[in-house]
Amino acid sequence: MQRMGMCLRLKPGTVEEYKRLHAAVWPGVLARITASNIRNYTIFLKEPENILFAYWEYHGTDFTADMAAMGDDPVTRDWWKICSPLQEPFETRQPGEWWAMMEPVFHTD
Question: CA 68 from chain center: how many Å?
């Protein structure tokens, strides 16, 4: 299992819409997340800066393939078309990232 954290911002004026969408995530999106070996997925919001922090635990063996399958899923792509315009990725993210991946620096059970 691999713990993963990532972050980005919400655009000004989009917080309520983002919360509304995530109060009722589409079942097909949730199914794809599970099929892509992601567990314990949580998104946190820091206001008033509108920073989103996402955390998940990856339980698969081929992260690249699992993320490609997620990106190929038509329901997930439709979900992203709705959510992505609300988001503002960090300029410092790595090439190919939307959410900026974060380095783990501490963990305890």
Answer: 14
Element housing 66 (H / E):
helix 63-72
**Whole-number CA gyration radius for the chain:** 14
Contacts of 56 (CB under 8 A, 6+ apart): 3, 4, 38, 39, 40, 41, 42
- Cα separation values, 60 from 32, 39, 41, Å: 13, 10, 14
Taking the model in full, what pTM does it have?
0.91
Model pLDDT for residues 28-48, shown as the tens digit of each residue: 999 999 999 999 999 999 999
In a domain, 107, yes or no: no
Half-sphere exposure of 79 (CA within 13 A, CB side): 20
Would 67 be classed as within a structural domain? yes
Q: Is residue 59 part of a domain?
A: yes
Which residue shows structure tokens 């979900």? 79
